[in-house]
């Protein structure tokens, strides 16, 4: 039992002995160290129910609270908080535990649980933009957080390889071949990035033509292409007369080859960000299953939750639940995103039999998911109960408009990666402490830390503004700053050479004590961050640890003190905690800076 749990159990016992009735006692870590290492508002909770002064109740609890060698002091402050301060004995035990226990960071809260976490979800035939990069980074942090608690995680990626966006791209591509006087064979000779960007330009051409609604022939051709491409994956679809035209144009081979380009390009980005997916799902694989699920549950069949309407099949969402009506099979007989999403839910469960399924998408998809999950809850309450959907806000640059690949205002994920790396390289060169070889080896790592930390330190659901100058700074609340703290620890330990590290029982000065107080909270903060899917909580903790360490370093002469061996032990465990925390966030460390 950890100390937080121990304090909680003691409060429960005291509360019962005093005759106080309370549903849930909360013990939390205060944001201000002057308010103790742990704090509880139990007195205010009780006071509210019994109509008494919370300060009187807090003092009553304080008087009855048992002595604990791990707690140095317990105090009551207005309006009724009870604060607990760790003893030096406990802090030194943490120091020894971090150093000597190889399983110190291991938590087993979720051991035996299987999670599938779906994230990134880019669409082939469109550019991988910074929204996809954000979802990739947040999703990977979710996976690592629950893994840190002992869960088994399947990383999944659902990629949209069918739909109007594909038809618009191929239509635009055919027009661009004419405009640019090149052939598909000539395009194939280009670099992968150039090919993918050419597809992105083709998509914008097709989208703008379709969106303009003036060119009826273009709209007709795009709809034909869409149906034809769906038919490549759903044999049950009726063959149309115009198929001959697209077969003569060799659209089938073109489609599959271009899809492969995009998927290969995405893999390059995943490798760069450090993500390795276990399962890939394609929308094209869900089409037939989605059609079957919906058709088997039309009114009069199965669960009877879908209804035919004007040639389509719809699901009428309950307005009282904030839901609206959505089409699951369109008038052409094609499965919509909704039908394919239902199929994906069943496919995931059939393949993986998970305990929890987590999905991260942009918040603009939230209304859509609400309807899908409502339908799923009627088809399979068991599967629906295991789902959890997180939405995120927009990712922007300062003063930039909302990102939209449809109107050509897209910000590419790879561009952000490259620009951030370039910004870091420039800073490193200006410092004069790096040679060219070192820069090429570490600038990408530091740049990635800047992006990942900037994304993760903001609460999931809020908009993110990425500022190159602020994010890549080695000072302040940034990824590079945390890497610098870790590298400084390593530098001190390296400079100490053969000097032995002493984890013995020493009297703590104020700076050493504050550093140990910070270190002692790591596992609780990690647990809280993981259970609430809040990587920003862990970011805040690591930044506070970094600041506390730098205050310690500036005020304590580690290598010049008579107590150097013990002080080095503090440096050593700080580096271990920082490294573990950064790894959970998906941020690689740099040994020297």
TrEMBL record:
GO cellular component, one term: cytoplasm
Keyword ATP-binding: yes
UniProt xrefs under Pfam families: Arg_tRNA_synt_N (PF03485), DALR_1 (PF05746), tRNA-synt_1d (PF00750)
Cross-referenced SMART domains: Arg_tRNA_synt_N, DALR_1
GO biological process per UniProt: arginyl-tRNA aminoacylation
EC number: 6.1.1.19
Chain ranges of the Arginyl tRNA synthetase N-terminal domain: 1-86
GO molecular function: arginine-tRNA ligase activity; ATP binding
UniProt catalytic activity: tRNA(Arg) + L-arginine + ATP = L-arginyl-tRNA(Arg) + AMP + diphosphate
Top-rank EC class of the record's enzyme: ligase
Keyword Cytoplasm on entry: no
Highest taxon, organism lineage: Bacteria
Record keywords: Aminoacyl-tRNA synthetase, ATP-binding, Ligase, Nucleotide-binding, Protein biosynthesis
InterPro entries with a match to the protein in the record: Arg-tRNA-ligase (IPR001278), Arg-tRNA-synth_N (IPR005148), Arg-tRNA-synth_N_sf (IPR036695), ArgRS_core (IPR035684), DALR_anticod-bd (IPR008909), Rossmann-like_a/b/a_fold (IPR014729), tRNAsynth_Ia_anticodon-bd (IPR009080)
Ranges of residues in domain DALR anticodon binding: 482-593
Family: Belongs to the class-I aminoacyl-tRNA synthetase family.
Protein name per its UniProtKB record: Arginine--tRNA ligase
Gene field: argS
């Amino acid at each position: 039992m950890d100390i937080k749990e121990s304090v909680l159990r003691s409060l429960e016992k005291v509360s019962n002995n005093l005759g106080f009735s309370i549903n849930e006692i909360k013990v939390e870590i205060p944001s201000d160290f002057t308010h103790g290492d742990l704090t509880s508002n139990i007195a205010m909770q009780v006071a509210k129910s019994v109509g008494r002064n919370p300060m009187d109740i807090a003092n009553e609890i304080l008087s009855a609270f048992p002595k604990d060698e791990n707690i140095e002091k317990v105090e009551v402050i207005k309006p009724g908080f009870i604060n607990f301060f760790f003893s030096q004995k406990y802090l030194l035990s943490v120091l020894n535990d971090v150093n000597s226990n190889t399983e110190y960071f291991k938590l087993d809260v979720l051991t035996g649980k299987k999670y599938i976490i779906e994230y990134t979800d880019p669409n082939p035939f469109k550019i991988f933009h910074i929204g996809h990069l954000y979802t990739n980074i947040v999703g990977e942090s979710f996976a690592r957080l629950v893994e840190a608690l002992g869960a088994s995680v399947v990383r999944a990626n659902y990629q949209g390889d069918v739909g109007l966006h594909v038809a618009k791209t191929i239509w635009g591509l055919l027009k661009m071949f004419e405009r640019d006087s090149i052939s598909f064979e000539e395009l194939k000779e280009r670099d992968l990035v150039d090919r993918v960007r050419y597809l992105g330009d083709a998509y914008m051409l097709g989208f703008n033509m379709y969106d303009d609604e003036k060119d009826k022939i273009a709209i007709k051709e795009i709809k034909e292409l869409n149906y034809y491409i769906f038919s490549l994956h759903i044999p049950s679809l009726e063959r149309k007369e115009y198929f001959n035209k697209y077969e003569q144009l060799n659209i089938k081979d073109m489609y599959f080859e271009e899809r492969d380009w995009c998927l290969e390009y995405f893999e390059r980005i995943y490798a760069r960000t450090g993500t390795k997916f276990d399962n890939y799902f394609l929308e094209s694989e869900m089409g037939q299953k989605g059609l079957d699920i919906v058709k088997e549950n039309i009114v009069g069949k199965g669960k009877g939750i879908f209804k035919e309407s004007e040639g389509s099949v719809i699901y009428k969402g309950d307005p009282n639940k904030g839901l609206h009506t959505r089409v699951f099979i369109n008038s052409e007989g094609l499965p919509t995103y909704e039908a394919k999403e239902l199929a994906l839910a069943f496919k995931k469960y059939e393949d993986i039999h998970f305990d929890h399924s987590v999905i991260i998408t942009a918040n603009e998809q939230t209304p859509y998911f609400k309807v899908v999950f409502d339908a799923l809850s009627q088809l399979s309450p068991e599967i629906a109960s295991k789902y959890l959907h997180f939405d995120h806000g927009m990712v922007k640059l300062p003063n930039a408009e909302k990102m939209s690949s449809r109107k050509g205002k897209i910000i590419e994920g790879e561009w952000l990666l490259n620009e951030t790396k370039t910004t870091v390289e420039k800073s490193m060169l200006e410092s004069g402490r790096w040679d060219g070889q070192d820069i090429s080896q570490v600038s990408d790592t530091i740049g990635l830390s800047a992006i990942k930390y900037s994304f993760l330190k903001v609460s999931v659901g809020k908009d993110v503004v990425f500022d190159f100058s602020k994010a890549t700074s080695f000072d302040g609340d940034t990824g590079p700053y945390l890497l610098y703290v870790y590298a400084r620890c390593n530098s001190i330990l390296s400079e100490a050479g053969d000097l032995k590290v002493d984890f013995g029982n020493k009297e703590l000065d104020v700076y050493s004590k504050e550093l140990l107080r910070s270190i002692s909270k790591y596992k609780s903060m990690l647990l809280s961050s993981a259970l609430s899917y809040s990587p920003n909580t862990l970011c805040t903790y690591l930044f506070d640890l970094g600041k506390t360490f730098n205050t310690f370093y500036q005020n304590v002469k580690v290598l010049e003190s008579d107590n150097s061996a013990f002080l080095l032990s503090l440096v050593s465990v700080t580096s271990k905690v920082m490294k573990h925390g950064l790894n959970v966030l998906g941020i690689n460390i740099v040994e020297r800076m």
